[in-house]
């Protein structure tokens, strides 16, 4: 009788324990929409207290996310629609700029093999084969020794330890395309040398990559978002698609990550130069896309990004930067009229540094118009003019190419030269030196 009575008591208890176990297992494994798949460190506490205080409003009828399998069922001309936002706008004052006594956009490149480069290519364990020009055979290394010198002032000398102190307990996130990834990699290479090897960690998950310094409880991150808004090209390794489809009224996929950063550095430009894009609005249920030229598409995306900044950024709590256009050097006639070729074989900056060269003026004016309405919420990192002079700083043929080069290309090196990205150490380091002036 006692055994039977004990069994009657134990069975309900076992059942209760089992159901409690199942319930809490499900609760624990629910995916957090803000940190889905992202591992910044082995610790579970957030990098910044601000992460707890921010939230993102998710639409009730969220459309199916775009990916590389997304297609347009049909395509029509752009009908003039623009994104509408209902979020309250947080007002701000005038634009944040560096001291008026220092115009860092006006200056010259000075050869300086004493203070530059700020690190060696071989000393950065995270160096990418896309920008490791010395590794891939470039023997003229003068591109590493040029320093940007403003005309009427001096830049604060780079100091990695000081920068880490500024970043203590914070997340610095670069958001954009491969040019912004190059700036992120430059920042990592500049900063990693003062962190003990056992106290630094690099993690990558989906389109977010993070370098973390344990002693400072800080991270330097890169978020792949070439159009800023959601697109079918949001996979870092699978974006070579025949058509570019994007949602100009949705940056939820990306902003769910970047909203938790304390310092944000955005860019967008290069991908809009590749012809027209197709728009698939969130409310469109029949797969009908609208086709629009690259510049107009970029303006729509910039408006969506600016609306997010207006409604979500408190400049007292979050720093936001926008990096202006990085000029390419694919046409030699832009700096030497009448000449054919590109950046291949170039070993010196453009000498006539008073002449505006290879600058996309319509895009520049459009970006200035969008940024003008954001006031102190955004600081502009204007790298366009100083970068335009550096025809010598590109990888050219001295990088790893991930596609198979044809015999015709191999016989004509200029035909496959990369005149878009930048060797490291090099030009991208100077962008970060300018960013350092704001801290």
From TrEMBL:
Belongs to the PC-esterase family. TBL subfamily. PANTHER family: PROTEIN TRICHOME BIREFRINGENCE-LIKE 35, PROTEIN TRICHOME BIREFRINGENCE-LIKE 9-RELATED. This is Protein trichome birefringence-like 35. It holds the Pfam family PC-Esterase. The keyword Amino-acid biosynthesis does not apply. It comes from the Eukaryota. It comes from Nicotiana attenuata. GO terms for cellular component: Golgi apparatus; membrane. Coiled coil: none annotated. It is a single-pass membrane protein. It is found in: Membrane. Residues 101-154 form the Trichome birefringence-like N-terminal domain. Residues 156-437 form the Trichome birefringence-like C-terminal domain. GO terms for molecular function: O-acetyltransferase activity.
